[in-house]
Amino acid sequence: MRLLRMAALAAALTGILASAGMARTVRWAASGDPNTMDPHSQNVGTVTMVLQQIYDSMIQRNRQLGLEPGLAAAWRQEEPNRWRFTLREGVRFHEGETFTSDDVVFSITRALAPTSNFGIFVDTIDRAVAVDALTVDIITKAPDPILPNKLASVMMMSRSWSERNNAARPQNTRQREEMFTTRNTNGTGAYRLQSREPDVRTVLARNTGWWGWQVPTNNGNIDEIVFRPIASDATRIAALLSNEIDFVLDPPLQDLQRLRSQNALRVLEGPEVRTVFLAMDTARDELLYSNVQGRNPFRDLRVRQALYHAIDIAAIHRTTMRGQSVPTGTLFPEQVNGWAREEDVRLPFDAARARALLTEAGYPNGFEVTLDCPNNRYINDEQICQAVAAMWARVGVRTRVNSLPLGPFFAKIQRDDTSLYLLGWGVPTLDALYSFQSLIATRNGAQGDGIWNYGRYSNPRMDELIQRMKVETGDTRMATIREALHLYREDVPSIPLHHQMIPWALRSNLQIPHMANNQPYFRWAVMN
Amino acid sequence: MKAFFDSDIWWSFTRSPVVVLSAIVALVCIIGAVFSPLIAPHNPFDLASLQLMDAFKPPSWEAEGDPLYLLGTDDQGRDMLSAIMFGARVSLMVGFCAVIFSTVVGVTVGLVAGYMGGKVDALLMRIADIQLTFPSILVALLVDGVVRAAVPREVHDQIALFVVIFAIGISNWPQFARTVRGSTLVERNKEYVQAARVIGLSPLRIMRSHVLPNVMSPVLVIATLNLSFAILAEATLSFLGVGVPPTQPSLGTLIRIGNDFLFSGEWWIAIFPGIALIVMVLSVNLLGDWLRDALNPKLR
Q1: Residues in domain Solute-binding protein family (chain A) (predicted)?
Q2: What dihedral do alpha carbons A324, A329, A334, A335 form, nearest 10°?
Q3: I want to staple A512 with a disulfide (CB 3.0 to 4.6 A). Which of A28, A525, B60, B103 is the partner?
């Protein structure tokens, strides 16, 4: 008997040792660190890239960004305003709670709360009702054909865990609030959060009990994920070259050539569904950060056009982006439903015209303004801002670049504490409405409308078109989007720059599908 | 003037070609830096003059170089030579101000401690001792960090230059204080000081008019050697991104920017500011060394 026990112990020990020796760890880096671990507080790719490993949504994205069952095994539009979701059985949160329909009701209600930054994904939802433990009905205010698309971005939390930890509503990032969910997570996902040191290191460990490992397409074999933000370009690339990390999400563009020539490394390339643009405060009567007194130059269409004309996008494309961008004159790239080639036309680069427009608008000597700019969010974001500032200086608009790391940057613009800012906007739903509604619609307190419109642009005609986009279908809807795109070109609510390309650099022994939403899904990552 | 050219110092200066050379180099650096707005080929602060299409031009002697830009251009099309001249101006300005600051603080503390003696001396010297246990760059980082946390960002950008000067200056005063205290202890007991005390002069007046002039020569040496330390400290802080504001790039800031392009073959963006920094610090150091020897009566 004793011998048997010893043998069992020895076997167990060998097992542990073997698995310890075999543990596959991916160490990866990006320039920015997530500014929260709360799943409904910041609709920002840098946050999502960590949280989507930890939390599941009812509906998930497949490798082609299509939809596939997540925590909901099936869903159906029972009535125009009622969707029924049948949940997966036997799913557990990382801390042991069983996942039920009550958690879905809780999570959706939480995403609807005023401090949520995810209202855009639940804007049409009136309420969620638990029918039984594994069935949920979602009642919408109006028929919403793309509801499943939106729900793919709403992560599911545990009601009992959240309420126990005073986190029943999302963290208020604008007010720099700190709460339990800022640093702690409890999802149902493939990985659980093992340790979190903001700006230093975030370690995730494989959740062996994840339901998804039964699904054949989730063939990932990674046991541990270590994320390290490394802001300096040179340090990040040195870490990759010296084998200190395995994967860089945003390698500096200037180093791609060198990385491609390395045998031990690979560069995956492709476009991202993300458009970088400049937006202006068009609401205030006087700008917060400018020397113009008593009026707001950005309310004048001619000034907006002048700034647009002054940008030499070809130079930015060639020099700042080293060819890794697609210059654009519209709000979203080709992959998004509603895009029209005829409306993707820029105002031409024409400094003389820009000066003439400024003079006409009453600013013959230009003016001063501050451009708020992130320095670790988008590819070469700070360099783009500096380049634009130089171009505007040439037509007389003296621009001070205020560059900030993404945490303080988002908090600043989300308080409307800005006159001019650079933003990049991805489109997870792959539909035009998402961009129009978040960025261009008047902010009216309703869920989603103008939720990221921090220049508070407002145009009744545009609003009417956006409201129509929500309810129309088929060709009428396409015509409405087309008209809105045309109005966007004419009224210049923001100045589009380009869609960014997103090269990923990784060691050759690591395989991970390159995604157009710039999200690494480690459930599909294989390390040899 | 004639007295100066007849002096020992001038004689020892002319005797060493290395010292003459480093004096010339230092002078060129200082003139180039101080008059950079007048003599630099471009103005890197004038945004309107930048051409993005001219970015990443290699030095003019390379195949793709442009004779307009002798040392090439950086990622925004700024002329490296002009950027270095303007950067050296900021570096030198911070260096000089920081040294003056630590000299004033250190000499005052040293004089008071040495002349007063007793508890005042003990207290002041223990403070200096405590500070000497911290590496000075750490003290500078600490000061900068505290100010950064204490004042709002917008205000900080405006006072950043003064913060750096203060941070570097405050991290270095104990050296001055200890030297001056030592010399003051010696001078205090000499007859001329005793005589001054007997005729009833105030301690302040004795310290200022009688002791101070006689303890200044070692201070001059330390100040020269400290100038190179201060310039390096500023470059270090700026390289770490906590120094001067990015709108006034110093040599350290330029090296930090260039660092991002070292791997990609655009070496000139980091190397030239680096060389400028080395040359400047080296020449100042050599001058300081020579001054120490020249002023040391034992070596004559």
Answers
A1: 67-444
A2: 80
A3: A525
Burial of B176 (0-12, 13-18, 19+ CB in 10 A): buried
Tens digits of residue pLDDT in A6-50: 555 555 544 444 444 568 999 999 999 999 999 999 999 999 999
Q: Is B259 on the interface with A (CB under 8 A)?
A: yes
**Predicted complex ipTM:** 0.81
- For residue A398, give the chain B residue with the closest CA: B47
Domain map of chain B by residue range? 40-284
CB atoms A252 and B247 under 8 Å: no
Set of chain B residues whose Cβ sits within 8 Å of the Cβ of A234: 259-263
Asked whether the beta carbons of A500 and A325 are under 8 A apart, the reply is: yes
Q: What does the alpha-carbon distance between residue B104 and residue B125 come to, in Å, rounded to a whole number?
A: 16
What is the average per-residue pLDDT within B10-20? 86
Handedness of CA A213, A217, A218, A222 (dihedral sign): positive
Q: Pick from B92, B94, B80: which is nearest to B33 by CA?
A: B92
- Give B149: exposed, middle or buried? Use CB within 10 Å, 0-12, 13-18, 19+: exposed
pLDDT of residue A10: 54
DSSP A81: T
Q: From the options 3.30.230.10, 3.40.50.300, 3.40.350.10, 1.10.3720.10, give the CATH code of B40-284.
A: 1.10.3720.10
Q: Smallest Cα–Cα separation from A451: which of A190, A173, A189, A228? A: A173
B76 at the A interface (CB within 8 A)?
A: yes
Q: Phi/psi of residue A306, each to 5°?
A: -60, -45
Beta-carbon separation of A400 and B46 below 8 A: no
Domains parsed from chain A with CATH numbers: 22-54+190-270+502-528 (3.40.190.10), 57-161 (3.90.76.10), 272-501 (3.10.105.10)
Q: pLDDT tens across B87-103, in order? A: 999 999 999 999 999 99
Q: Are B246 and A389 a contacting pair at CB < 8 A?
A: no
DSSP string across A156-184: ---HHHHHHTT-SS---TTTT---HHHH-
In angstroms, how far is CA A416 from the centroid of its own chain?
Answer: 19
Asked if the Cβ–Cβ distance from B260 to A399 is below 8 Å, we say: no
Per-residue pLDDT tens over the stretch B221-280: 899 989 999 999 999 988 887 877 777 889 999 999 898 888 888 899 999 999 999 999
Taking the C-alpha atoms of residue A32 and residue A236, their distance in angstroms, rounded to an integer, is 11
Q: Which of B131, B140, B128, B107 is nearest to B231 (CA)?
A: B140
CB within 8 Å: A399 and B264: no
Crossing angle for the helix pair B80-116 and B268-295, to the nearest 10 degrees? 30
Which residue in the set B46, B53, B260 is minimally distant from A315, CB to CB?
A: B53
Query: In Å, what is the CA distance from A79 to each residue of A76, A82, A145, B148?
Result: 9, 5, 11, 58
Q: How far apart are CA A382 and CA A248, in angstroms?
A: 19
Tokens of B297: 């009566």
Evaluate the CA torsion angle B50, B54, B57, B61 in order and state its sign: negative
Contacts (Cβ under 8 Å, ≥6 apart) of A47: A34, A35, A36, A37, A41
For residue A296, the number of C-alpha atoms closer than 13 Å in the C-beta half-sphere is: 19
Q: Read off the DSSP letter of residue A65.
A: S
DSSP, res A88: P
